[in-house]
Specification:
The protein has 233 residues and is mostly helical. The protein has two domains: 94 residues, no CATH class; 96 residues, Leucine-rich Repeat Variant (Alpha Horseshoe). The longest helix has 37 residues. The relative contact order is 0.07.
Length: 233
């Protein structure tokens, strides 16, 4: 009587284990290359720059990180890490603003997230720095408009300042700036009025709110500022 045939070898298990190992290795390699290396490069740059030189960053620093877009992507990766791994969030935001000034088309994405950061100091620092550069800040315009309703009056002030610096490009912010003319903080009202003037003809729709603000007894300083702006005295 012949013996029964032996069962076929189950070769799929070692093959599946080999495939899983390869996928794990590839995933780890991608994580290191796409996340950890950029994070480390930005961390190294932030560590080498002294606090006095944290803003603005030089073109040499941006070139070291691969150019404006590359540096912006790397800074964005740094900022997406847990705060324990990315403690220098404000200085990293200044690096992003330097990238925006250098023509990066990507820098606006992480900057918009920073303008909504839970930390009011981060929101205010980003808005302040945006108001201190000559660059196309259109990518962050919606985030700046939302900042006009911030609970922190200092952040509302620096947001109006950044919109003033944008000039006519801040046209879509006119309705929000018109609302800012009723802000309880005089500095915000003054900066909002100047921003509307800098925007130009697009801001004519805010004329009623501006007239109301000028008639407000609290707005003596606003009238003086606008008088100086119109007369040059």
């Amino acid at each position: 009587m012949s013996e029964p045939p032996s069962p076929p070898l189950r070769t799929w298990r070692p093959m599946a284990a080999w495939t899983a190992g390869m996928l794990l290795a590839l995933g780890l390699a991608w994580f290191v290359a796409a996340v950890m290396v950029p994070w480390w490069q930005v961390r190294d740059v932030l560590g080498r720059e002294s606090a006095a030189m944290a803003y603005p960053y030089s073109n040499e620093t941006i070139a070291e990180l691969g150019g404006a877009d590359s540096a912006a992507h790397k800074a964005g990766t740094y900022l997406r890490m847990p705060k324990v791994l990315s403690p220098e969030r404000i200085r990293a935001s200044f690096l992003l603003i330097a990238c925006l000034k250098s023509g990066s088309s990507y820098a606006g994405v992480p900057l918009s997230r920073l303008l909504a950061d839970p930390d009011p100091k981060v929101r205010g620092s980003v808005a302040w720095a945006l108001g201190d550069i000559d660059a196309d800040a259109a990518p962050v315009l919606p985030a700046l408009v939302r900042l006009l309703a911030d609970s922190d009056p200092t952040n509302r002030h620096v947001a109006t300042r950044a919109l003033r610096r944008m000039g006519p490009a801040a046209g879509p912010a006119v309705p929000a700036l018109a609302q800012a003319l009723r802000d309880g903080v005089p500095e915000v009202r003054i900066e909002a009025a100047i921003a509307l003037m800098c925007i130009g003809s697009t801001s004519l729709s805010a004329a009623p709110q501006l007239g109301e603000a000028l008639g407000d007894p609290r707005s003596l300083n606003l009238r003086s500022v606008l008088n100086c702006a119109f007369t040059g005295r």
